[in-house]
């Protein structure tokens, strides 16, 4: 083979390999997600993100007072290019599982139908549309549960959402991503250095890491301190040439466009 052709072939192979591993031309993607529509998201997390021009995804519960009583503030959050995402209307979880004493009979997913959970999702999409005007949405499974009663409701998710976040801890690799159950790391009590070590692992393995926060400086039993959260954000800002910080919507659309999602996905 002519040497120029060999060089061209090698360059082609190199660019294919590189594009398979990069995240929007960076080493890793770090997605910051915040669940359950808490006051501390508006009071602590978003000002910290905005001060460094970083982006977060807020999985909102449509009935949460921190949403219903502060809608004007969520409009501003959306205007700052954070993502308002869907975490159902009433946050139903399966109360028959271990450690689920907090689930009340009215909102026990074990006694729901798929129709009922779908109605919660679509109503919340309508609420969020009224806030930010958007028609595309991502979803996070409350408590990570994917069944209403005995039936999986994942197909109903596919009808209504671009992607969905799950709760299994994983470094997400391009190539075989289930866009309707993307893994995440639930954060509870980690130090800033421990959070940064997780990001460094994502950089070393050319992965996407999705952080799942609840409380930020309080308000929830699953919590990260303000200091640890701030230390993580500053690390992301200091390494912005190597780390992409998309919203969950941007990240999953990117995966979909790059053709590396599971073929069963829409
Ligand atoms: Zn939740």
Describe the structure.
- The structure is a single chain.
- A hairpin with a 2-residue loop joins strand 5 (147-148) and strand 6 (151-152).
- The relative contact order is 0.18.
- The protein has a single domain (19-257), classed as Alpha-Beta Barrel (TIM Barrel).
- By secondary structure, the protein is α/β, with parallel strands linked by helices.
- The protein has nine helices and twelve strands.
Write a brief caption for the model.
The protein is an alpha/beta fold and 266 residues long.
How far apart are the first and last residues' alpha carbons, in Å?
41 Å
CATH C-level class: Alpha Beta
Q: What is the CATH homology-level superfamily?
A: Glycoside hydrolase/deacetylase
Q: Give the helix level as a range of percent.
A: 40-55%
CATH architecture: Alpha-Beta Barrel
Give me the number of helical elements: 9
Largest sheet: 6 strands, parallel
Query: What's the total count of β strands?
Result: 12
Shape: globular
What do the pLDDT scores average to? 93
- What structural class do helix, strand and pairing data support? alpha/beta
Number of domains: 1
List segments where confidence is low: pLDDT < 50 over at least 5 consecutive residues.
none
Series of secondary-structure elements, N-terminal to C-terminal: HEHEHHEHEEEHEEHEEEHEH
Name the bound molecules.
zinc ion
- The fraction of residues assigned to DSSP E strands is 15-25%
Radius of gyration: 19 Å
Under CATH, the topology is which?
TIM Barrel
């Amino acid at each position: 083979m002519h040497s120029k052709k060999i060089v061209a072939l090698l360059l082609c192979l190199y660019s294919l390999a590189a594009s398979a591993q990069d995240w929007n031309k960076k080493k890793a993607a770090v997605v910051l997600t915040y669940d359950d529509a808490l006051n501390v998201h508006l009071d602590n997390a978003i000002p910290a993100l905005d001060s460094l021009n970083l982006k977060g995804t807020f999985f909102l519960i449509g009935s949460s007072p921190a949403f219903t009583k502060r809608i004007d503030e969520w409009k501003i959050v959306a205007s700052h290019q954070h993502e308002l995402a869907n975490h159902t209307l009433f946050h139903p979880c399966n109360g028959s599982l271990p450690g689920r004493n907090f689930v009340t009979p009215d909102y026990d997913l074990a006694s729901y139908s798929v129709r009922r959970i779908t109605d919660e999702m679509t109503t919340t999409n309508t609420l969020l549309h009224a806030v930010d005007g958007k028609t595309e949405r991502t979803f996070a499974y409350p408590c990570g549960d994917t069944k209403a009663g005995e039936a999986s409701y994942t197909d109903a998710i596919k009808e209504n959402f671009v992607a969905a976040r799950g709760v299994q801890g994983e470094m997400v690799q391009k190539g075989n991503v289930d866009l309707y159950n993307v893994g995440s790391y639930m954060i509870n009590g980690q130090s800033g250095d421990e959070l940064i070590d997780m990001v460094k692992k994502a950089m070393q393995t050319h992965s996407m890491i999705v952080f799942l926060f609840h409380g930020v400086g309080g308000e929830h039993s699953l919590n990260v301190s303000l200091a640890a959260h701030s230390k993580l954000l500053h690390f992301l800002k200091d390494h912005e040439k190597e780390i992409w910080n998309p919203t969950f919507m941007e990240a999953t659309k990117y995966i979909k466009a790059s053709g590396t999602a599971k073929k069963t996905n829409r």
